[in-house]
# Entry
Amino acid sequence: KKIRVGVVFGGRSGEHEVSLASAKAVMENLDPEKYAVVPIGITKAGQWLLGTEPATLLAAEQPNGGIADTFRSVTFTGDPTVKHLIPLEGGSALGEQGALDVIIPVLHGTYGEDGTLQGLLEMANVPYVGCGVLGAAVGMDKEKMKMIFDSAGLPNVNYLVYRRNQWARSPEAILDAIETQLGYPNFVKPVNLGSSVGINKAHNRTELEHAINVAAEYDRKIIIEQGINCREFECAVLGNDEPIVSVVGEIIASNEFYDYNAKYIDNQSQAVIPANIPQQTTEEIRRYAIAAFQALDLSGLSRIDFFLDKDSGKIYINEVNTLPGFTEISMYPKLWAASGIPYSELLERLIELAQERYEDRQ
Ligand code: ADP
Ligand code: MG
Ligand code: MG
# Structure
């Protein structure tokens, strides 16, 4: 009997479109001999649509936030009393199609990568790929992530965090504090986001003030980091309690930094896999990657990103991404392909890890 895999994608996030591309690749690479794929699209308005391919999800979305067709609901395995928690249209599809054995959340950013969907799936008592509630939530919160890096002894850039209301109350004092403690250039980011959305590099006080205002539009917490003159490296981690780590890759960004445009629009950024760095540096990065994965209590998968300071030669951990981009040309699958695990085998392993983690928690 085939394993029924629900692939959840889209969602109420700034990274909605990125998710559609990832989900398309995931569905195309699940071995049809082994898996029956059930696409579950979430519109930007937050409506769940069963059986919608990523390409048609956008088309189905109506300007009024409604949807074009009538869709049936999704029912998870597990406790039937909680299935109605899942906000869906129409009646139950359980009898007709059978319940889902495992879910692959292919969502990036808020309501998907941040622990919210993971909480819902825990309550629905269904195995799912990737991190649990805690790992996903701290992996999305750049402040808490860095606090844990600090306490685990992982090398972190200097940073400051302010709440939106603090910024509104005393902007001059905050600008002064950033200038004395971090200097220029620095990077200003919404604490909970990804894909470089809302991130700006500030070279002076005017740019800094503007950058904080931009970040404050996206989040009530704003993080400001010391800017590093850096090369950027990424590596992929796979596993639960005994994770393995891929080769290290380098990103050569097409812009002054790896912004949204350099990531998704201009197609000029390059990946060098494996990175051209000394063996010792590679081993240091791989060691930190495993340490970060364990410190944040991650599971399944994560892409862990690093800076190499060109001036001092020092390695810094930048961040983890618990649901990294998953198209065939995305770094996470490419790093594994270069490490001997092709895309469809990677999906198989992730599904096994989801089932293993589910059993472990019973
Ligand atoms: P996201 O989660 O949106 O990818 P990141 O923290 O990874 O956010 O920042 C996006 C990009 O901005 C990085 O890949 C890097 O190019 C640049 N960047 C971010 N922080 C720094 C920093 N402290 N020093 C130098 N470059 C940075
Ligand atoms: Mg990120
Ligand atoms: Mg990043």
Notes: The CA atoms of residues 36 and 194 lie 31 Å apart.
